[in-house]
TrEMBL record:
InterPro entries: PLA2-like, PLipase_A2_dom_sf. It comes from Mesorhabditis belari. GO terms for molecular function: phospholipase A2 activity. Residues 1-16 form the signal peptide. GO terms for biological process: arachidonate secretion; phospholipid metabolic process. This is Uncharacterized protein. Keywords: Signal. The keyword Signal applies.
Length: 106
């Protein structure tokens, strides 16, 4: 189990991809984008970074989530798999972002 966790977390630390509220989510997010949308990795990462900043600024959860969803839609607008990942990223923040917004955590 430890080798798997290391495999999932070390790439995130080396490449500064930051989409997820913990190292496992971050690594899984990075992995699916690298597999299905490698040319869009930076675009998805930029969406996540902007979303984290929006939450930290307390700019309104719905507002931050709407901007994020628009961003991930654009990031994924290259093929059906990337579009699905954009929708999934959006759904995750809309369904599970309330605690992160309330506590100021990503």
């Amino acid at each position: 189990m430890l080798p798997l966790l290391l495999f999932l977390t070390i790439p995130s630390l080396l490449f500064a991809f930051d989409c997820g509220s913990d190292p496992i989510q971050n690594s899984l997010s990075e992995m699916v984008i690298k597999i299905d949308c490698p040319a869009r990795l930076d675009a998805f990462n930029n969406c996540c970074t902007a979303h984290d900043r929006c939450y930290a600024a307390k700019a309104g959860r719905e507002n931050c989530d709407e901007i994020f969803c628009d961003c991930t839609t654009q990031a994924g607008n290259v093929n059906l798999q990337c579009q699905a990942h954009g929708r999934n990223f959006c759904g995750m923040v809309r369904n599970f972002g309330s605690l992160a917004y309330a506590t100021g955590r990503k």
